[in-house]
TrEMBL record:
Name the record gives this protein: Adenylate kinase
Residues binding AMP, per UniProt: T31, R36, N57, L58, V59, G85, F86, P87, R88, Q92, R161, R172
Summary of the function given for this chain in its UniProt record: Catalyzes the reversible transfer of the terminal phosphate group between ATP and AMP. Plays an important role in cellular energy homeostasis and in adenine nucleotide metabolism.
Pathway the protein takes part in: Purine metabolism; AMP biosynthesis via salvage pathway; AMP from ADP: step 1/1
Entry keyword ATP-binding: yes
Main location: cytoplasm
Subunit structure: Monomer.
Natural source organism: Streptomyces noboritoensis
Gene name per UniProt: adk
Span of domain Adenylate kinase active site lid: 127-163
Enzyme Commission identifier(s): 2.7.4.3
NCBIfam families given in the database record: adk, PRK00279.1-2, PRK00279.1-3, PRK14527.1
UniProt cross-references to PROSITE patterns, sorted A to Z: ADENYLATE_KINASE (PS00113)
């Protein structure tokens, strides 16, 4: 299957993408991984992306699109892929359609992870990270440490990242609504959108998503 995964910040896209890609036997292609791979390998697109990022600017659509096309052309993606973070706007969605059409291919589904805005804020603003080891992540509601402000694992100090504050999260949501959410209508017009609730335990959401995708494939 060829799938695009969309949803607001805090919807759990990265977590779900990893599980879904494994269950479906297709590569998980994320924008972040594309950037890191191209920059570390010193590709022309990577050098272009780095120059924009170093200057504090957004990477232009054409650079991101070029990276995505190169990745989708690799052998492991011949049988399908799951795109996470791309496309992030209608321009990129149109470019993806054109690239697939040129190869006689098309998307099978666009999986929309739906989460209420207040839940997104609660999920992200409640995160606390260990200063000693950033892999140790807690949450004031869903995974509270035994002692407030102290990591259960190593005893390090827990803190809230600057981009996890409520004000920052709401600004990120505004960007999502204005830039990325319109692609849902773009794909809905093609009959590709499958919307599921991303509330509940991780495995519950994964099972919900797999069921919806299988139903879409057999429809």
């Amino acid at each position: 299957m060829r799938i695009v995964l969309v949803g607001p910040p805090g919807a759990g896209k990265g977590t779900q993408a990893a599980f879904l890609a494994k269950n479906l036997g297709i590569p998980h292609i994320s924008t972040g991984d594309l950037f890191r791979a191209n920059i570390s390998q010193g590709t022309d697109l990577g050098k272009q992306a780095k120059s924009y990022m170093d200057a504090g600017n957004l990477v232009p659509d054409e650079v991101t699109i070029g990276m995505a096309k190169d990745r989708m052309a690799q052998p492991d993606a011949e049988g399908g892929f799951l795109l996470d973070g791309f496309p992030r706007n209608v321009v990129q969605a149109e470019a993806l359609d054109e690239a697939l059409k040129a190869d006689g291919l098309k998307l099978d589904a666009v999986l929309d992870l739906e989460v209420p805005e207040d839940e997104v804020v609660k999920r992200i603003a409640g995160r606390r990270i260990c200063r000693t080891d950033s892999a140790h992540v807690f949450h004031v509601t869903y995974n509270a440490p035994k002692t407030e402000g102290v990591c259960d694992i190593c005893g390090g100090e827990l803190y809230q990242r600057g981009d996890d504050t409520e004000d920052t999260v709401r600004k990120r949501l505004e960007v999502y609504h204005s830039e990325t959410e319109p692609i849902i209508d773009f794909y809905r017009a093609q009959g590709l959108v499958v919307t599921i609730s991303a509330l509940g335990k991780v495995d519950e959401v994964t099972e919900r998503a797999m069921h919806a995708l299988k139903a879409e494939k057999t429809a």
